[in-house]
């Protein structure tokens, strides 16, 4: 999990201008990522794309789309890699009233193995890199209580 956060920050630093983020802001502020529910084990890289998306939202002060879930590992170059436990994650998203899910292109085969009944009402976005993730996840709306960084 710590490595995913580090990779997310390094990717943002390397691509700050592409996201419309002033690189000086990245040096000016420290970021602390708190993942609550300490008793729940959270290992593995599945939160990589989620962490990167939330950090881009923070620095750009743009909203992340509602009712959206995502899972995937990221590389330093922004490639999205497949993760495990897709069936369980989709069922949890469905219980949480999620409407859209972003997954790695390579996880498409995992979706095809799930009974269509469980997939009803869900829209999947299969991605290969972080630019695809951000196109689906970040809106043009500013966050509530917008802060000028």
Describe the structure.
The protein has 149 residues and is an alpha/beta fold. The protein has one domain (2-34, 44-142): Ribosomal Protein S5, domain 2 (2-Layer Sandwich). 40% of the residues lie in helices and 17% in strands. The chain contains 7 helices and 7 strands; from the N terminus they run H-H-H-E-E-E-E-H-E-H-H-E-H-E. It has helices at residues 2-14, 23-28, 48-60, 86-95, 108-112, 116-119, 130-137, and strands at residues 62-64, 68-70, 73-74, 80-81, 100-104, 123-127, 138-142. The strands form 3 sheets. Strands 2-5-6 form a 3-stranded parallel β-sheet, with helices on one face. A two-stranded antiparallel sheet has the order 1-7. The radius of gyration is 16 Å and the shape is globular.
Question: Main traits of this protein?
Answer:
149 residues, globular, 7 strands
Itemize the secondary structure elements and their pairings.
Layout: H1 2-14, H2 23-28, H3 48-60, E1 62-64, E2 68-70, E3 73-74, E4 80-81, H4 86-95, E5 100-104, H5 108-112, H6 116-119, E6 123-127, H7 130-137, E7 138-142
Parallel strand pairs: 2-5, 5-6
Antiparallel strand pairs: 1-7, 3-4
Helix pairs in contact: 1-3, 3-7
Number of domains: 1
Q: State the CATH class.
A: Alpha Beta
- Poorly predicted residue ranges: none
* Mean pLDDT score: 91
Q: What is the global morphology?
A: globular
Neighbour order of strands in the largest sheet: 2-5-6
CATH topology: Ribosomal Protein S5, domain 2
């Amino acid at each position: 999990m710590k490595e995913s956060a580090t990779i997310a920050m390094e990717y943002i630093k390397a691509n700050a201008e592409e996201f419309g983020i002033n690189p000086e802001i990245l040096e000016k502020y420290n970021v602390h990522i708190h993942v609550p529910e300490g008793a729940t084990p959270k290992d593995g890289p599945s939160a990589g794309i989620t962490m990167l998306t939330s950090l881009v939202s923070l620095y750009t002060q743009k909203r992340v789309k509602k009712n959206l879930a995502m899972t995937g590992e990221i590389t330093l170059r922004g490639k999205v890699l497949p993760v495990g436990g897709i069936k369980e994650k989709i069922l949890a998203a469905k219980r949480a009233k999620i409407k859209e899910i972003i997954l790695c292109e390579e996880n498409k085969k995992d979706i095809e193995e799930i009974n269509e009944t469980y997939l009803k009402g869900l829209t999947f976005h299969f991605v290969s890199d972080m630019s695809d993730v951000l196109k689906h996840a970040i809106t043009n709306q500013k966050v509530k209580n917008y802060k000028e960084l």
